[in-house]
Amino acid sequence: MARLEIRQVSKIFTDHTAVSDVSLTVNDGEFLVLLGPSGCGKSTLLRMIAGLELPTYGDIVIGDRVATRLQPKDRNIAMVFQNYALYPHLTVYENIAFPLRVRGTNSKVVDEKVQWAASLVGLNKLLKRKPRQMSGGERQRTALARSLVRDPDVFLLDEPLSNLDAKLRHSAREELRQFQDRVGVTSVYVTHDQVEAMGLGDRIVVMQSGTVRQIGSPEEIYLHPADTFVATFMGSPPMNLVPQGDIILGFRPENFLPESNFASGSEITRIAFRMHRVEYLGGDRLLYGHVSGNLPETPVIARIPSSVAYAPVVGSEVPFAVATSDLRRFDTASGKALPITGSFSERRVAHV
Questions:
Q1: pLDDT tens across 48-93, in order?
Q2: How far are the Cα atoms of 39, 49, 203 from residue 59, in angstroms, in the given order?
């Protein structure tokens, strides 16, 4: 295991800048997620860590070595790809053993390491199978075990769950998190899926257009987004944003509730809500509508637990509210988060 440092790294191609002046540190044993939409630079950054791309500017430090210009084979990193890159003609055992065979490792050590890695990922009983005889989740575990036998300083994972269906992704995500907890290898994981990021990451790096917008724990990023991009990228449905002159008010759908849900005397901000339609999602209902009296007309969404007895009439204006402590404010010009001032947070009731 090793600490990984990215020092003011940029990657400029002929027609665009893929990564712009990124600096971050991945602590020893940490699971860091690079999250962002397609084209944000997260995979390019991962490829530079791996040595598959050379930075235009900046340095990459793995442990105590500047690895910027080292070949991939000299970095002691392991990479798990989206398609797992398993050899179809080899058994699971031989796929896991392959990097050790290439090094000329003696057979006894190979067997010990394969058995150890297979036990960590639960493949002991599947070592004689070929990849075509396995599920997507089992192939993923084979790729992890193959990487693990190399004793890497850093694991790099490039959207390894994206080819799995929804049910398998959920179980594979849980297995991957358990694997990380057992092994504790410094890991960098790339994804565009915020659910994966929230469920797996010790910390998340949110990227857009080659730049880092925010770094923090899943809770920090969800509850305290640094700007309107992060606010709307994290969360499904995203944070509601309501323009108010030189500021934008933000609040999560699950915090946007009928006024009757709040205890008497609570510090709330009232928001007149005109509902257009209801979407039933089992445990929750999503209420789509707009803020009444707000021009231009601003769409908002409320998330109400299905267990809550509430049946608003479509098209009606209903009194909703948000606890003042759950409101976030953003600067209209820059989109950056603003601190909640005393005068704002102390207002017992405000009308939007």
A1: 999 999 999 999 999 999 999 999 989 988 888 777 788 999 999 9
A2: 22, 10, 21
C-alpha to C-alpha distance for 59 and 349, rounded to whole angstroms = 52
How far are the Cα atoms of 49, 91, 104, 133, 302 from residue 88, in angstroms, in the given order? Answer: 28, 8, 22, 10, 49
The helix/strand/coil state of 310 is: coil
Q: How many residues does the chain have?
A: 352
Residue 284's contacts (CB-CB under 8 Å, 6 or more residues apart) are 303, 304, 305, 306
Taking the CA atoms of 39, 40, 42 and 44 in sequence, report the sign of the dihedral they define. positive
Tokens 């309501």 belong to residue:
242
Q: What is the mean pLDDT of residues 182-206?
A: 91
pTM: 0.85
> Tokens 């058994």, residue?
91
Q: How far apart are CA 208 and CA 225, in angstroms?
A: 14
Half-sphere exposure at residue 44, Cβ-oriented, CA atoms within 13 angstroms: 26
Query: Which tokens hold the place of 289?
Result: 């509508």
Q: Give me the half-sphere count of Cα atoms (radius 13 Å) on the Cβ side of residue 164.
A: 23
Amino acid identity of 202? D
Residue range 190-215: mean pLDDT, rounded: 94
Q: How would you class 79 by CB atoms within 10 Å of its CB: exposed for 0-12, middle for 13-18, buried for 19 or more?
A: buried
* Share in percent of the chain as helix, strand, coil (round to 5): 30, 35, 35
Q: Find tokens 């849900």 and name the residue.
A: 261
The strand pair at 154-158 and 186-191 is best described as parallel
Q: What are the tens digits of pLDDT across the range 1-53? A: 689 999 999 999 998 999 999 999 999 999 999 999 999 999 999 999 999 99
Higher pLDDT: 175 or 278? It is: 278
Indicate the average pLDDT of the chain: 88
Give the pair of three-digit tokens for residue 63.
Answer: 């442990």
